[in-house]
Amino acid sequence: MRTSIRRSHRLMALAAVAALTTGLLAGCAEDSDDGSSDHSDGGNGSGRITLTIGTFGVFGYKQAGLYDEYMKLHKDISIKENVTTRTDVYWPKVLTRLQAGSGTDDIEAIEIGNITEAVQTQAAKFTDLGKEVDKSQWLDWKNAQATTADGKLIGLGTDTGPMAVCYRKDLFQKAGLPTDRTKLAEMWKGDWSKYVEVGKQYMKKAPAGTKFVDSAASVYNAAVGGASERYYDKDGNVVWDKSAGVKKAWDTAMTVATSDMSAKLKQFDPTWDQGFANGTFASVACPAWMIGYIEQKSGDSGKGKWDVAAAPAASNWGGSFLGVPTASRHQKEAVALAKWLTAPEQQAKVFAKQASFPSTPSVYPSLKPQPETTAYFSGAPLTRIFSDSAKTIPSQPLGPKDKPIDNAISDIGILQVEQKGKSPAQGWDAASKEIKDVLGQ
Which residue would you say has higher pLDDT here, 23 or 441? Predict the structure, then answer.
């Protein structure tokens, strides 16, 4: 969720570390709306234990009323969520706090692109949750991603990221394209390059001031998320520069980046949010967790204008975990909250609110979005679309540097071409230099 997505990372990490120096000494997180975090008992004068949860983007717990529900069930608990919008800012700060042994939230979210790094390098800093839960509740591959070689489970699965395409049917109609989700799905079925071909058709009669897609990076992320191998092979070897899946996704993204069909926005930046609100682009590669994001950022003016169609091919983009740092002052209570938030019943409630697709398969047959969400997306059968995608997503090997490699390609290489007019070869060279720096090559 949320993603992740999301440029010189070394510079950002250094800036984050610098900004944290004072906060670490004070033992506080600085990402909440009011810039404060309470790790103390009774800090609110009520005698309650305050549990803090660090997240990135919109997880949906607050929006679905889960925090309020839990606090009603546990009168001695107060919950405070500290949100950082971007994972490339969030995760370096978490790593710094883990290493310092202080300043962490009681629960820390871990994005799928960071989970292997956490498993391989930070496992000692997290509580073993496998002793606390029935692991059969989660998808086997989801548990495996958060399990160490010696069997320690450091994170409980939240959502997964099965893919669809979200589109503005009003803009499609003005461009002379079909608006029926079934017809559109057939037009681009089989390959993301077919989706790009539809974009070329859109641009022939595009409504003034609009583009077909938000960014080339979104097309890249969608395409590479359906590859059987991307940055690492099954033996843990780095293969980003040899991967057929990466090459195909890059080439597809370059078709977008060098055309006129992209709004050239950087995902999760304020201009991207404004693009949703202003109808700047007509479609976006749309994992399940993005449903709530679109509804939030497009606002009332987008209701009934958005629709959802099946993606060209099954793909996963995103998905997260909740971990409890050993530095938490309230480990027992934090573990109980993490278990409750990721239980099947709660995952179903988050799906109902914002279509974040659960990692607990027992609830799949009964998933229902809220009527308001269904109406917002023109009655699209969200459960069926995302369930069908989830059933055929290939299992991808992950590695400790998945996220920075992905960021380098999406946010350095692609943006060099899309926003700065560099050639695809120059963009690839820029991404390659960053990746080699990240890998210490």
Answer: 441
